Amino acid sequence: MLRAACRPARCAAILAARRYLSNGPTRASTIGFIGLGAMGQHMANNLVKASFTTNKEAAFIVHDHSTSASETWAQNAKSLFPGRVIQTLQTPAEVAASAQTIFTMLPSSPQVLQVYTSPENGLLAGLARLNEETRRATTLVDCTTLDQAVSLSVNEQVASAGAAMIDAPVSGGAVGAQEATLSFMLGGAQAPKDIARPLLRAMGKNIFDCGLAGAGLAAKIANNLLLGISMCAVSEAFILGQKLGLSPAVLASVINASSGRCWASEINNPVSGALAYAGRTSPADRAYEPGFKLALMAKDLGLAAEAIKKHDLQLSLSEYSYEVYKNLATNEVIASRDFSAIYQVLLGANGGEITVEPGVVDASGTKS
């Protein structure tokens, strides 16, 4: 019986996988990572370091829609681990053919659909070219924050293909990704979560099992809804405090030792110089260099807004915060800055620059 000629994309993926595996590593010992953006590049750094330190047989492959991003990352990794197998592949399908455990860290729903379900080059297309036993050994870990319904649909398609997928969105921003202090919120079946957990520990310090598929995303969307609202509230509190004569550092020292304390006030404070009393800085001290881009916060609040509408909820603070971020995200300059830059916009709406003599606060929080 004659075998039908394979389509070009199928042949390319098969040949790429064969070339990769012929270099020595097995698919079972290979980890794949797709998405080397502001978060993904640091997550991949920590994952490859931990993998190579603990497993001499481990190999690592990466893919990004930007060829230069994946090649640059691979070159840097090879300089740190000379002689180890680190390769870039051209499509997600090739990654699926070559790695048994694959992480994806992408901007949002459209990119997840492209990477997972593209007919010729997606992960599902790559899985379809493998035998059943190999597919069943495959674990896909999606760390993207996206629409829960989209994630559940992709999860079902992966399960139908014979593989396993979990949602594992993260919290902690670019700094957390760099320092391996992220929090992961897991949703999915227990077996793939158990496979992913040791690898996730290389990239974060908190791993929460939230339940079945989609539960990790539910937790992440609710968390970021609270974060967006709290940043607005902290910004308004500091505008008021300065109008009443307080310096940002004095007010921050009080709030962060009192009941108003939160991540937006203590770690990512939106006011330049506010954390000087503690010897720390925030994106506000670096011209709002992200961090977590305002455009991404608008996206996450949009996901929350869709869920709120779907469930017919009346959540006025959520609606207000989403509208503020959504409108600001249309400005390319502001959208590319850290989301705490919302403070500057609210400040401008209330009379522009507020100048207060910076009080000096000692270790006890007392202004001199």
Automatic annotation (TrEMBL):
Residues 214-346 form the 3-hydroxyisobutyrate dehydrogenase-like NAD-binding domain. Pathway: Amino-acid degradation; L-valine degradation. GO terms for molecular function: 3-hydroxyisobutyrate dehydrogenase activity; NAD binding; NADP binding. InterPro entries: 3-OH-isobutyrate_DH-rel_CS, 6-PGluconate_DH-like_C_sf, 6PGD_dom2, 6PGDH_NADP-bd, HIBADH-like_NADP-bd, NAD(P)-bd_dom_sf. It holds the Pfam family NAD_binding_11. One of its GO terms (cellular component) is mitochondrion. Residues 30-210 form the 6-phosphogluconate dehydrogenase NADP-binding domain. Transmembrane segments: none annotated. Keywords: Branched-chain amino acid catabolism, NAD, Oxidoreductase. It catalyses: 3-hydroxy-2-methylpropanoate + NAD(+) = 2-methyl-3-oxopropanoate + NADH + H(+). SUPFAM superfamilies: 6-phosphogluconate dehydrogenase C-terminal domain-like, NAD(P)-binding Rossmann-fold domains. This is 3-hydroxyisobutyrate dehydrogenase. It comes from Mixia osmundae (strain CBS 9802 / IAM 14324 / JCM 22182 / KY 12970). The lineage of its organism: Eukaryota, Fungi, Dikarya, Basidiomycota, Pucciniomycotina.
